[in-house]
Each structure stands twice: as C-alpha cells, then as structure tokens.
Amino acid sequence: MSVRAIVLLSGGLDSTVAAALAREAGREVHAVSFDYGQRHERELASARAVAEALHARSHSVLRVPIGDYGGSALTDAGIAVPTGRDEARMGADIPVTYVPARNIVFLSLALGVAEVKGADEIHIGANALDYSGYPDCRPEFFAAFEEMARLGTKRGVEGKPIHVRVPLQHMTKAGIVREGLRVEAPLALTWSCYQGGEQACGVCDSCLLRLKGFREAGAVDPVKYAR
Fold this sequence. Notes:
Blueprint: E1 4-8, H1 13-24, E2 28-35, H2 42-53, E3 58-63, H3 87-90, H4 102-117, E4 121-123, H5 139-152, H6 154-157, E5 163-165, H7 173-182, H8 205-216
Parallel strand pairs: 1-2, 1-4, 2-3, 4-5
C-alpha cells in the first residue's frame, strides 16, 4: 500500500516540484490549497491546473480568512509589493510580503485533513536558502511543528505520528528548477509572482528569485514575464 501524503500546493514553483517529487516517491498525493484573502487568485488557478496535471487523488481548496486582519503586502492592497530588490536587500529583514502565521495556520489545517484522510505525511515546498527571509520557512520551525503535531493529535498520541516532509528545504532555487525538470513537473502551469495579471511582473522578490534559479540552472523559464 502506498503512503498517503497531504501536499500543500500553492501553484508556485516550489510547491509544484514538491508535489511532483512526492508522486515520484510513490506517494498517494492529496493536494490542499488555500484561499486566504491573497491579493489575486491567479495562483489558485495554477494550483488547480497543477493538481490535475499531476493526477492528484484529490484537491481541496480551503477558505481561510487570515487576510482579513491584513499586515502583509500579499493580502492588503494598501501595502506595496517590493520590486527591484537585490538579494542582500531581500535577506536583510522579514519583508512586508510575510503573511503573519501563514504556514502555522496552513500546516495546522493540513494536519487536520491528514488525520481525516488517514495520511502519514504532510509535504510542503518551503525553502531555507533562496527565500525572502520568512521565519516560517526555517528548519527549526518545521521540526518544532512536527513535534507539536505528535503531542497534539490522536494519531501522535497513539504512536502513529504524521510527519512533516520539506524536500526542498536545503536546495537553492537552481537546484529546485533542476529537480523540477528532472521529474517533468508541469512548470509551465505554475505562478510565482506576488502580483496578479496576465503575465508575471518579473520584478517582485518572488519573480526575481525564480528567474535567478532558472538562469543558474541553465534553463529557460516557460512562464511569460511583463519585464
């Protein structure tokens, strides 16, 4: 019997590669995405397309109103998305694109879905190298969350804990791109841009990191950019 896994799928590059790696590893993939009040729904359209392309056993889109309290450029139209920043400026502090407690909320809900579906693992495409300084992408956070899950769930108490898998944790963006190409992940369907629209902006932190990854991997990004 294959291992059942809940995969957090945003529709971006990292989560898509994580989902493709889970499938390659023989996992029965159940994708979970979140409508959390983000400033555009383009990434959710990508998540649906990616889940279908990867033949996920199921795909749930959960409405989570964490954007209602604002505090992030990804949920509050009054806060501008940073553009044109170099890597030093991206990593200098926690950026305004940080959504307060987002991964804590997402993983907690995924944990509940995992218990209901009898899943043994939760996979998340977080990365601790080429990222924008988010505290909830660090290895120590995921280790602490897994321990919390062991202590606070029926399965954990009964000795069958749900494990948190972070397969891209120590990869560069170039490494992630190479892995995505190797496993034939549907990268053309993905959306990484922090801003909506017909084309990715090409100048926000997420676009710049993604373009850097493709460039260093010696590959061409199949997504079109406005700039």
